[in-house]
Amino acid sequence: RVTGISTVLDSNNKFLTRNLMEGLIYELLAIGLLMGLLFRSFSMMLISLLPNIFPLVFIGGLMGWLDINLNLSSSIIFNIAFGITVDDTIHLLSGYKLYLRKGMSKKEAILASYLHSGKAVTMTSFILFGGFIILTFSSFNGIFNTGILVSVTLIVALLSDLLLLPNLVKWLHR
Questions:
Q1: Residue-wise over 34-53: b if at least 16 C-beta within 10 A, else e?
Q2: Alpha helix stretches (DSSP H) within the chain
Q3: Which of 119, 144, 148, 149 has the highest CB neighbour count under 10 A?
Q4: Model pTM greater than 0.90?
Q5: Which tens digit of pLDDT belongs to each residue from 47-99?
Q6: Angle formed at CA 51 by CA 63 and CA 43, multiple of 5 degrees
Q7: How many angstroms from the chain centroid is the CA of residue 96?
Q8: pLDDT value at position 174?
Q9: Are 115 and 42 in contact (CB under 8 A)?
Q10: What is the b/e burial string over 144-168, where b = at least 16 CB atoms within 10 angstroms of the residue's CB?
Q11: Residue 71: what are its φ and ψ, rounded to 5°?
């Protein structure tokens, strides 16, 4: 039987990766179900998930490109990214639904939602960015990586919600 610290670390990383993926899948299903129920629309369920998946895929690719291993500190980034992106998406889509109920057209509701909720989403993202970018001044590699990856994720999540989400709503929501 193979033993040693390397074997323990490898099995720990496999366990961490498997649990991270399972958790993200459950989170995606839960958010998709809740958004589907909120809008009573399968298309809105898909629309709400796509901008939330994009930052996760982007940050995973960035981690691979920068050769950052998936470990305990770097796995937290995926949960932070997903939570922030979902929060922004819910704010923007809830505003959209509210303006549709007020009798606005789809285009007017998107614009009104982004003028109202978009300011708060943008401001929150920049404030969080400012808080996390400070971590990049750390000499400890794990904290530095967390700071840079969360900061990049916040910007990508904001762009995803502000650029991708309205186009998906225009094209897919009936």
A1: ebbeebebeebbebbbebbe
A2: 5-39, 42-65, 72-101, 106-133, 141-159, 165-172
A3: 149
A4: no
A5: 888 888 899 899 989 999 988 887 777 777 888 778 888 888 888 888 888 99
A6: 145
A7: 19
A8: 63
A9: no
A10: ebbbbbbbbbbebbbebbbebbbeb
A11: -135, -170
